[in-house]
């Protein structure tokens, strides 16, 4: 579970120095709102789902909803620069979903989540996914009050991404290598990507998944159930 005393905005790759700048001050304001979200969602396990555009976030949420809705009450906030298409896709499979249209912005900010919370019914919800805008850069800096950050990296994107976009992988608890069904057809090494990602973040967990043939989906669902149970145990303590 992410530690609220070390904001994601302040975590830097090993061997780099953090400079004081305007953006950093804005991020400190974002961290303040993220803290308010954590206070408000004490009983809900919140997962911030990040990736490049098209890596399979919405498809995975749909599949997860289908598999877990009999056990867990799931809701989704989904961010996109334009359109409500992803929220519509979630609702088509019976998931309680609300679209955050960022108006062209390349990430979700905590204040957008805080506003959205007033427009979605979270009564009895165990698990709230926040599908971030497709982007491996900006979303990394914005704490959304989540308990866990999960980053998808599709096999079609290349296995060099963790070192090129380190902050995303540094600030995530889990990396999902998605579209694993395509691994036989693309030059992508699970060993290489895991090695690079763990050099960036030694604590990063990894599961390889495919929504097409079901590989890794049980492991992913078990991971989620564990995290929901852990959050409930903390909130009841
Ligand atoms: N081969 C394969 N294709 C997949 C898999 N998961 C998703 N896709 C396809 O990848 C495309 C993008 O999937 P989405 O779920 O829309 O991706 P996304 O990350 O939500 O995209 P944005 O919200 O636009 O960032 C769709 O055509 C999916 O059918 C998978 O496991 N294997
Ligand atoms: Mg999507």
TrEMBL record:
Q: Where is the CobW/HypB/UreG nucleotide-binding domain?
A: 46-207
Q: Which GO terms describe its biological process?
A: protein maturation
Asked whether the keyword Nucleus is assigned, the reply is no
Which keywords, in A-to-Z order, does the entry hold?
GTP-binding, Hydrolase, Metal-binding, Nickel, Nucleotide-binding, Zinc
Q: Which GO terms describe its molecular function?
A: GTP binding; GTPase activity; nickel cation binding; zinc ion binding
Highest taxon of source: Bacteria
- InterPro entries in UniProt: CobW/HypB/UreG_nucleotide-bd, Hyd_mat_HypB, P-loop_NTPase
- A family per Pfam: cobW
Alphabetized PANTHER family for the sequence: HYDROGENASE MATURATION FACTOR HYPB, HYDROGENASE PROTEIN ASSEMBLY PROTEIN, NICKEL CHAPERONE
- Matching NCBIfam families, A to Z? hypB
- Family to which this protein belongs: Belongs to the SIMIBI class G3E GTPase family. HypB/HupM subfamily.
What's the name of the protein? Hydrogenase accessory protein HypB
UniProt organism field? Sphingobacterium gobiense
Its lineage opens with: Bacteria, Pseudomonadati, Bacteroidota, Sphingobacteriia, Sphingobacteriales
